[in-house]
Every structure is written in C-alpha cells, then in structure tokens.
Amino acid sequence: MTGKKKVTLVIWFVALTFIYANDIMADEFKLIPSIAVREEFNDNLFFTENDEKDDYVTTVLAGLELIERTQRLDLYLSATVSPFYYADYDEFDDVDQNYLGRVGYQISPLLGIKANALYDVSNRRDRDIETAGLALSNDERKRQDYGLGFDYTLTEKASMALSLGYLKDTWDTEDLDQQDLEDYRAGLNYIYNLSQWWASTTGRLNFGFERYRFEWLNTETSDTYSYSGTIGAQHWFSETVNLIVDLGVQYTDSDFLISPLVEDNNKEFGGTGKAILEIRGELTRGSMSIGHAIRPGSGLGTTVERSDVVFNLRRRTVEIILSGKLMKMLILSGPISDGNFLKILLWKRVITLFISMIVSKMKIQDET
Description:
Helix content: under 10%
Distance between the termini: 53 Å
Number of helices: 3
Number of strands: 15
Strand order of the largest sheet: 1-2-3-4-5-6-7-8-9-10-11-12-13-14-15
Structural class: mainly beta
Order of helices and strands: HHEEEEEHEEEEEEEEEE
Strand content: over 45%
CATH class of the largest domain: Mainly Beta
Radius of gyration: 24 Å
CATH topology of the largest domain: Porin
Oligomer: single chain
Largest sheet: 15 strands, antiparallel
C-alpha cells in the first residue's frame, strides 16, 4: 500500500469517526490529535567523564490518541512520532516512534482482565536514563512489550492480581555493547484495605519473577533468574496526594558467557524496595521516588544493581483557542444532509513546565 493511500484511509477514518460521534457518545469516546515542541539543554551530551559537550535539542511530538470507555470496557490507543534535532551535532538527528495499546474488560463485578502492547523505536542516547540509569549509544533500538493481567476481588476488603509479560529489545547493530534482550516476567499482588485501623490506607504484598536473556550474534551471552518479594502500604493524604512504600528482598542467579568456552555464575541476595510520593492534580503532577533493585541493563548483556532518587514535576496551563463545528463536508456521494458535519476537536495551546532530577548509583553485576 502506498503512502498516499495510507494517508487517505486515515483521513476517511477520522472524518467518519466525527460524523458518527453522536451515535458513540452514549459511552465516553475521544479521538485526540496533538502536536508539541520540546526544547532542552544538555550540558553533557555524550555522558562522558572528560571532554564534556553541550547542545540544545529540539523535539517535535506529533500524536493521536483514541479513548473508549463503557461500563465494562476501557480502551486506549496512541501513536506518537517524535523527530528530534540537535543545534550543533546534527549528525545525530533522528526520529523516534511509539505505538501503545491498552485494553481492560470487566468480565464480572469480581473479575477483570487487562492487556497491553507496545512497539517503540528509539535512537536517543539518554532513552533509559530515568528508568535504568544508563546512557546508551545512538544506535536504533526496537522494543516490543506485551502484557496480560487478571484482577479478582476476594472480599469487600481484599483483592488479588496476576500479571504476565514479555519484552524484547532488538538493536540495529552488531556491537558487543548493544546486545539483544528478552525479558519474561510474572507478578502476583495481594491488596487489603486497612481503613479500619488507618484511614485511606491499603496494605500490599507483592511477589515477582523475571528471566533476562541476552543474545549477541545468535549466541546467548547471559541468562538471569530473578525472584523478589515485598510488603508495603499505600496511603492517600488527599484525593491528589498519596505515598507508596514497598520493602523486601530479591535474589538473582546469573550465568555469563566470558568466552566461547568459559562460563561464569553470579548469585546476589539483598534488599529491594521503593518509596514514591505522588501528586496527581489536574494541572500539577509530580513524584519523588527512592528505590533499590537489580534490573536488566538494556544492551549491556548483564544486570545492573541500582539505587536512585528521582524527582519529576509538571505544571500545565491550558488556553482554549477554538472549538465547535467549523464546516460541512461531503463524506459520501450524494446530497449533504443536515447531520453531515465535520466536528472539530477542541484545540488547545498547552504550556508545560517540566523539572526532572535523577541521582543514581549503579553496579554492573559481572564487574569485579
């Protein structure tokens, strides 16, 4: 299918969605196009200890979101294309892509099912700074991430959830420092309402399993099994502010390929946990988290033991520019009926102030 035909089909789909929006509005339905420009300054562009280079980076984010909610169904789809441009080092200019789908369905008042799928193409060196504390290369990485979950209400105060997931990273290079990753994971969570002893508080019990497999040139270079268990609580100070604390232990068993004929093994046992203070206001959102865990280092061929403090704060102001019915449009051949209007989305100018700070300490597991 040519690019012109693809664009034409998208236009027809969007137009027809607006035409028949009145029939859909019995449920919550939103189709939200967006475009944004982000400007940032990096004083150590290549994350080096010496000879630091700085530059300005401009990112254009163009996206489309679809939201559909009924009494039982919760559907979310999004697509974002993000070209980015360096002021001085334009040889690193590239385009990131992100496609996400989430769906939840309430089978009965007690049982619900959820599923998600992600396809992400990234090229930036700092793509994993916040999640893993790692500065990678500018090589392209394709990521697939799939998840399936079930939640069940046991009593008025207790519920359980089971989650399964699979992640795969594929690098567009044969560099030994950019190894492909497969991550299999499973989690079991138990939540109990503690309000009879402490208002607006729930207890949490979490068990997790993960297996990380790294591969380079069709050869498995490491294989890690991880087991964890934590106990904690979540407390709501108000409708917009809450605190989550989970503490526990984690055990990992890793096999490393040192050379084609030599393998090594590394076992780690220690504490793991996190504390997250969240603000979820209409215009202000933020979090401050402290955490410690062993995680796979994307591309490194091994795991990383990481302790970090992460602070994020967003403040958004919105000014409405245009809304309402703008024009009649002929969608199908024949006369235009009074109901054939193209409904224009509510266009907004959004200004967002974003502040982020990360302090991280890491240890790569196969280092001595």
